[in-house]
């Protein structure tokens, strides 16, 4: 039984709380929030999809690794790799860098192309393609890598998820469709800062 308290709380999403693993600083534990009227059982959904990817021997270089379930004082938790920069600091969301217009056009293009090729080559579905569902990991002083930590597989466990896992054709179509949406989300993240800059 792993004991979790506020000291280890790292972040919070719509359905889940994310804690630093008390026994391993390089891992996090995702716990479903208590008392929600409606949720999509994201832990179960992600665990199912990650098992599928593992059985298919997919590459995990641009997504966080999943290490399975643990029992905690707050309930069953799903353990994932914690995304940390080379200097030991927690990696920032990709959204943060987009809003800051941190990268040059070429740098941004290279980062996005690497991620796009990764998703297409490994047939991995990034469904909830929010720029805040991706960390931008700092590998060195001037080298970065995009790591998806949330939003993979499907929004809910339905017939669509089964189709994604069984039909390569449907998966390819969905990857292309979601990538177009993701690029639009990237542009929105950058544009929101530009709008704010004109406020006095």
TrEMBL record:
Record InterPro entries: PhoP_reg_network_YrbL (IPR019647)
Official protein name in the record: YrbL family protein
């Amino acid at each position: 039984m792993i004991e979790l308290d506020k000291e280890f709380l790292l972040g919070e999403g719509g359905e889940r709380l994310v804690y630093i693993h008390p026994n391993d600083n390089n891992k996090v534990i995702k716990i479903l929030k208590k008392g929600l009227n409606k949720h999509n059982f994201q832990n179960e959904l992600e665990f199912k999809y990650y098992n599928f990817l593992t059985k298919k021997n997919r590459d995990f270089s641009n997504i966080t690794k999943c290490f399975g379930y643990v029992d905690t004082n707050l309930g069953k938790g799903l353990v994932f790799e914690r995304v940390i920069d080379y200097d030991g600091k927690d990696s920032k969301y990709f959204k943060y860098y987009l809003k800051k217009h941190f990268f040059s056009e070429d740098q941004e293009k290279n980062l996005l192309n690497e991620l796009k090729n990764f998703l297409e080559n490994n047939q991995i579905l990034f469904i909830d393609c929010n720029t805040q569902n991706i960390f931008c990991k700092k590998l060195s002083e001037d080298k970065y890598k995009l790591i998806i930590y949330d939003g993979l597989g499907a929004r809910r466990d339905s017939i669509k998820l089964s189709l994604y896992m069984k039909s390569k054709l449907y998966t390819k179509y969905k990857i292309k469709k979601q990538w177009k949406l993701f690029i639009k989300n990237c542009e929105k993240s950058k544009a929101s800062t530009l709008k704010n800059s004109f406020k006095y």
